[in-house]
Amino acid sequence: MTSIVDITDGGQPARWRGVSFRVAAGEVPRGAPACRVECAQPGLFRICLRARSLLLARNRRYLRGVDWLRAVSEDPLELIPPQPHAIARELGSDLRAWARRYAEQLLEAPARLIHEGDWRIEPGVALADARARSRSWEEGAPVSILGLADERSGDRGSLLWDLNGSSDTLVLRAPPPIDSPRVKAARKLAREGILPPLLLWFVSGLDAFVLLDGHERLRAAQLEEIAPTALILSSVRTLPAWITEASSREKILASLEKNLRRSSSPATLDSVNARLRALHPEPERVSSRTRAWPIPGGAEAWLAQARALCGDDVPGELLAPI
């Protein structure tokens, strides 16, 4: 049985940073999961649920961002079961408890997304207005939710990357009607202050997030004008730390020594200390990397589907010659 472990920052007292779990070979069925990312060259992506396409995307030239197109559908994804009101009231705003619950539900889901490897679920920032743009997820700025606008362009668009990626979140289905029973129930939870967090999935090929679960909750939060919280699912790999070669390290140390001879001001000391820390990194680093499977039929099949979905309104470079 897969164990779910708390992640802490090692401080005193230790702060909770999320949960992690490792899925070993044999704990899940072999082969591609039901919900998965598929890819083909050059920079073509498809997110699908079984044979149903949810999102098509293409990296822009020079890795400047992603052009994307969502298949128009109001069908629920149901990757994890709906959260009963009794559970919402029991767990309230306890993100630690919700992270464990989502991990357990993902591991038991019939429409499997989880595959062999290491996974994390970590808290994200509160998500503000749907059309707000963010500068950086790490800075705690609000993240924009694309694809929820009422305009015709709501099912297609472009993400532009900066040094920290796009910090955007794409939805995988059309906005639910505001008078649907689930949205009404979620609005009641929002008014009580116990709206369960959204579940996002970080997709490294897009350098962005997709909304896995919580489309009704997001709609309810917008209607109630509150900022929903979010938990982020990601598959991770442990990689060796960046090690500076000995010759380069000696040159850097000599340069830092010269700097200290010229000045011992607080600003200089802070700069030297930062460089020294970089020379002696942690023995390992954790990196989010999303696994992808080949697109059946390759680039030509992807392009044919993209043309069929696009019509005359083509976002960016989505249909550029391959």
Describe this structure in words.
With 322 residues, the protein is an alpha+beta fold. It folds into two domains: 4-239 and 286-310, no CATH class; 244-280. The protein contains seven helices and 15 strands. Strands 1, 2, 7, 8, 10, 11, 12, 13 and 14 form a nine-stranded mixed sheet that branches. A hairpin with a 4-residue loop joins strand 11 and strand 12 (208-213). The longest helix is centred in the last third of the chain and has 17 residues, at 246-262. The chain is globular and about 70 Å long. The relative contact order is 0.17. The model is unreliable at 128-143 and 147-153 (pLDDT under 50).
Write the layout of secondary structure elements.
Elements: E1 4-8, E2 16-23, E3 35-40, E4 44-49, E5 52-59, E6 65-70, H1 85-91, H2 95-108, E7 117-123, E8 145-146, E9 156-160, E10 169-171, H3 181-192, E11 198-203, E12 208-213, H4 215-224, E13 230-240, H5 246-262, H6 266-279, E14 284-288, E15 292-294, H7 298-310
Parallel strand pairs: 3-15, 8-10, 10-12, 11-13
Antiparallel strand pairs: 1-2, 2-7, 3-4, 4-5, 5-6, 6-9, 7-13, 11-12, 13-14
Helix pairs in contact: 3-4, 5-6
Can you describe this structure in just a few lines?
The chain is α+β, with helices and mostly antiparallel strands and 322 residues long.
Keywords:
322 residues; 2 domains; 9-stranded mixed sheet; 6-stranded mixed sheet
